[in-house]
Design a protein that fits this description.
By secondary structure, the protein is of the alpha+beta class. The chain is built from 7 helices and 15 strands. The strands form 2 sheets. Strands 1, 2, 3, 4, 5, 6, 9 and 15 form an 8-stranded mixed beta sheet that branches. A 7-stranded mixed beta sheet has the order 8-10-11-12-13-7-14.
Length: 286
């Protein structure tokens, strides 16, 4: 029997089947994310199930963004996959049609690779444009950030506490995004989280040579990006952001171009992202 099922994250059998397909397709297992309490109701796989096995999937992620102080709810589609022996049966189309029925009129975005770039426009999606913000920096003295490995529940709780009291904002921030952020920092970015002891500020960043990619900042005391950049120290000469800064602060906005990645948007957000030169924060990508 074939059926589309969602809302099953607490069903061990279906969750296990979803995880097996995700691991075979992307090399990702969601089980530890679930067991650590970070897979909440905001991530909802819509799965086509055949005889109890997940054979195709499109996940719906409920994401809310604060854009210039106003909250804008959007849906994100991701974890699109089909078991190899079940491809070319129209399963993803059937799931997309189900999602269309459930979320008619809702703003939706997704990221797709080259191989399926022509598929999503059939469902009303338009190519969107994101922007990358970067600048040169000139600091003096040593950096003030301490690396904080995100490999224990205690480390996660300290970060989550700061996230709950966060006063550092960009122009387009993910709100209510506990699960998505922890998907990254508790799994793939355990060594990319830094702490500024004096201010209690967390900086999630990757370093390559004298460049830093700052994915996100969480702080209960620091509100301006210039102060955060000062924490990096003299070894960092250039910074790129995984979010949109609240103020210019000398950053240059350029159209974001990524290899084998296409940004699609449906609804009112398409024009807004381009007009206001926004981007989906990197840690908000499902």
């Amino acid at each position: 029997m074939e059926e589309i099922i969602h809302g099953y994250r607490d069903d061990a059998g279906l969750r296990g089947s979803f995880n097996r397909l995700a691991k075979a397709t992307f090399g990702i297992d969601f089980e530890d994310w679930y067991q650590n309490g970070f897979w909440d109701g905001r991530f909802d796989p819509y799965s086509l199930v055949v005889d109890g096995e997940v054979v195709a999937n499109v996940a719906v992620d409920y994401t809310d963004f604060r854009v210039d102080g106003q909250v804008m709810p959007l849906l994100q589609l991701g974890t699109v996959m089909t078991r190899p022996d079940c491809r070319k049966r129209g399963y993803i189309r059937r799931i997309m049609e189900e999602i269309d029925r459930d979320f008619a009129g809702r703003g939706i975005y997704l990221f797709a690779n080259d191989s399926v770039a022509k598929f999503y426009p059939k469902f009303g999606f338009l190519p969107g444009q994101e922007y990358l913000y970067s600048r040169e920096v000139e600091n003096h003295g040593p950096g003030e950030l301490e690396q904080v490995p995100m490999d224990t529940p205690q480390a996660w709780e300290r970060l989550l506490d700061t996230m709950a009291r966060n006063v550092f904002f960009g122009r387009c921030d993910l709100v209510n995004g506990r699960g998505l952020v922890m998907f990254y920092v508790s799994k793939f970015m355990q060594r990319d989280v830094y702490w500024h002891r004096e201010s209690g500020t967390y900086v999630i960043a990757e370093h390559k040579g004298d460049s830093a990619q700052i994915h996100q900042v969480f702080s209960s005391t620091v509100t301006d990006l210039t102060t955060v950049l000062g924490f990096l120290g003299e070894k960092t000469k250039r910074v790129a952001l995984g979010f949109v800064p609240r103020e210019g602060d000398g950053f240059t906005a350029e159209p974001l171009v990524e290899e084998d990645t296409h940004f699609f948007v449906r609804g009112q957000a398409a024009e807004l992202f381009h007009r206001e030169k926004l981007r989906v924060p990197l840690l908000a990508r499902a």
